[in-house]
Amino acid sequence: MDFEPIILNKVNKVNSFKDRLIYACNKNAKIPEYGQGQQVVIAKAMKVSQEAVRKWFVGTSKPRPNAMKALSAFLDVPYVWLSLGIDHTETAVFRDMSLKQDACLYAFVSYILGSGGSIAFNKGANDTSDVTVIKDGEIKKYSVYAAIKVTGSGQIFKLTSNTENVESVCAVKYDSFDVAYEFVHVPFEIAAEYAKSGKDYIINNLQNLKYKEK
Q1: pTM over 0.85, yes/no
Q2: What's the CATH fold of domain 17-86?
Q3: CATH number, span 92-203
């Protein structure tokens, strides 16, 4: 099918993932209209619950990256557009950000393994976390964030997880080292507030930061 990204306003190319999902469904002939089994068809194709799909449509959750790729293929739309709302001319920026995010995540994994914990990567469509950690007899889920920008006053993060059982961790990078990070825990109440508002979360003091278990 011919795909043309929709522009919903002049500030953002799309308002949200749910807007892009609805638009993609409306443009795809194999997807029924709303109220005629639309969510059932997607749930079966994605092998997830209808409740998970319902949450996608109302904007309370998004698919994990692997599920997002499968969904974009099913809907015949570009993955980067469905996931982030960006077009092909912006994919280089997306690729760079993905590499940074991967580097931070694997550094966090190394930290956990080095401290005696064990790790499982989360791939479920309904799971908003990156990894599950088993350490000292406890099981916890974590979302790990890379800085989207570094300024003279600090490092800027975009927090997206507001799920109560998921811990948010910011990977603060030292300029003097290529692969050195401090992992800073963000309390759930603060992470949820920033995820809901979309505001930048800024870590100003880069000295003596230590990852702290909650």
Answers
A1: no
A2: 434 Repressor (Amino-terminal Domain) (1.10.260)
A3: 3.40.1350.10
